[in-house]
Amino acid sequence: MRKNVNVIGAGVSGLTTALELQNDRFQVTVIADRFPGDLSIDYCSPNAGAQWRGDGRYAPGSLDAKIHGYTFKKLYNLAETVPASSVTCMNLEEYVDDTEASSHKDPWFKDLVPNVIPQAQLPAGAKSGISYTTVAIDVPKYLKWLLQQFIAAGGKTQRCHLAHVKGAFGENVDVVVNCTGIRARTLGGIEDQTVYPTRGQTILVWAPHVKSMKTLTNAIPFGYSRLCGISYIDEDVVKTDMRPLRQAMMLVEIYLLYRRNDFLTPNVRMASSGNVILGGTMDDNRFDLFPDKEIAEGIIRRCTALYPALTAGKELEIISHNVGLRPSRVKGLRLETEIAKNAAGKEIIICHNYGHHSYGYQASWGASNEALQLIKKALSSQGKDVESKL
User: Fold this and answer.
1) What CATH number does residue 156 fall under?
2) Which residues are annotated as a binding site for D-dopa?
3) Are the CB atoms for 291 and 201 separated by under 8 Å?
């Protein structure tokens, strides 16, 4: 007998987890008040610039490496075999100086990604670096594709706002998956006060001549520095917690910048679509709903000054100014299960999958598969073995 699962949240984590579960013979319903096509500052996934970028700081065999590696394989296969998914292969070049050189000496992903270029072939002036084929995602199309695949597999949706996690505890529900992102801070029954927003502001422009992704990390005291999209980092943020700062800058990048309080994350959503994201800011615990004009002007001014080819000799064609809240968490990703009870006393397994910060897409399939395994283990421990797929 199929187990009934309610997934709370329809961002990339929620939809991917729902699809993974539905394809594994669970009966899944996604409960959310926003779905692909809706726009809201706290519906983070549609505002992202998404690609896969290897983080050389992960230890081989670590959970992070496992999750990100699993996701790369899945996304690369989609790029190769399912054009409708909007995932595409692109080249990424990343050069660093001594500050981060160790991350490229023997990265855990060197045997995972194709076309890795060794240090001897890197340009003069770079102390270390790596070039490889990776994937980029046209986010709005990809989210809609995920939802379509989920529904086609027999999944269901319910549009509503839940004030408390128990609102998902239906009479016949066996499992609830919490993929609420930033809302995990306020959702009744969860109220995780270690969750906080990291506000990001970007500009979406039309630049079909941009075909690849590049980055140069400079010798600044704290973290990364990029070209073609600039973010202002408040001095207080720089002096306090650098972990979320460093994570937040791992989006799709192009070229270099060297200002101490700026970093660049030009996010190419999909080269074939002609859209390029310039950005973006990273402000912890800031909830502003509207784009900041001064920040936007600074992004454009610096991008066009440092990378004139971006305009192709014409006035920059702006499609939209975007603001979103990255779902950050002090302790990082929460991926675990716990047991609760519904009103009738029935045990409900709650699986948490949130706190991805800027790694939502990059970790999506791997984290969802880990959630699936955790759910199966929890059901088995209750004596409720999951129906075999065979």
Assistant:
1) 3.40.50.720
2) 326
3) yes
